[in-house]
Amino acid sequence: MQQPHPRFSVLSGSSLSSAEHLSPTASSTRFSLPSATSINTALGTPKPGLRPNIYDRNLNKTRTSEVSASAFAFLFSEVVQYTQKRVSGINDLERRLNTLGYRAGTRVLELMVWRAESSSKAPKREIRFLPALMSIHTQVWRAVFGRPADAIEKSVENEDEYMIIDNDPPIERHISVPKDMNQLSCSSFTAGVVEAVLDGLGLPARVTAHHTPTQQFPLRTTILIKLDKSVLEREEILK
């Protein structure tokens, strides 16, 4: 993976030496902080016409808010490159991306549960695996990526394995993987999100991401879910 080009300049030695000759008066004027009174006034009475602070928005009224795709791609690319410099191999890189996704997934689940409880007098919590999997395929994918996943499949060989198929994962569109790292799947981040949601619902599983490209969908990715034995035992009892 190519190393990132520096995007932010720093002060040169000459600039620093020039800055040291600034008078105390000029320095205090240029970098002065507002007093406590002015801070409280700014927070308490926002000027008319200004956009509301993100922390003041109603969480129930921002369900359809969208994030710039280019901003998301830039941020995620920087995360991958930052992480790549601190690992020893592909497996370690995927593990760290999975961990980051897990942290995001816990917050996604918390937000979705809060919205469900605040908008319904009798919120329902899924305790069966298949309804929970359908919710992840549709609601979680839409909350994170703006659309549902493409398919759900069950392994014909292993009873404890299920798959979520994404033919064109947004997380992979702007990632260029070198040939010597062609086994890398940055969708390990997505796998971490899914694993966190399943754990939060009381359905522990090990979730991994795998490239399964086709001629029509070169970025096609399979999120493989391997259920814990306790989930299968509970599903058998609830039948």
What is this structure's SSE topology?
Blueprint: H1 13-19, H2 24-30, H3 36-44, H4 69-84, H5 90-119, H6 129-145, E1 151-154, E2 161-166, H7 188-200, E3 205-211, E4 221-227, H8 229-238
Antiparallel strand pairs: 1-2, 2-4, 3-4
Helix pairs in contact: 5-7
Organism: Suillus luteus UH-Slu-Lm8-n1
InterPro entries: NO_sig/Golgi_transp_ligand-bd (IPR024096), TRAPP-I_su5 (IPR016696), TRAPP_component (IPR007194)
Subunit structure: Part of the multisubunit TRAPP (transport protein particle) complex.
What features would you highlight for this structure?
46% helix, single chain, TRAPP_component, Muramoyl-pentapeptide Carboxypeptidase, domain 2, 4 strands, ER-Golgi transport, transport, four-stranded antiparallel sheet, TRAPP-I_su5, disordered N terminus, 239 residues, endoplasmic reticulum, 8 helices, alpha+beta
Plain-language structure description:
With 239 residues, the protein is α+β, with helices and mostly antiparallel strands. It has helices spanning 13-19, 24-30, 36-44, 69-84, 90-119, 129-145, 188-200, 229-238, and strands at residues 151-154, 161-166, 205-211, 221-227. It has a single domain (66-238), classed as Muramoyl-pentapeptide Carboxypeptidase, domain 2, CATH 3.30.1380. Strand 1 (151-154) and strand 2 (161-166) form a beta hairpin. The chain is globular. A four-stranded antiparallel sheet has the order 1-2-4-3. The chain contains eight helices and four strands. It starts with 12 loop residues before the first helix and ends with a helix.
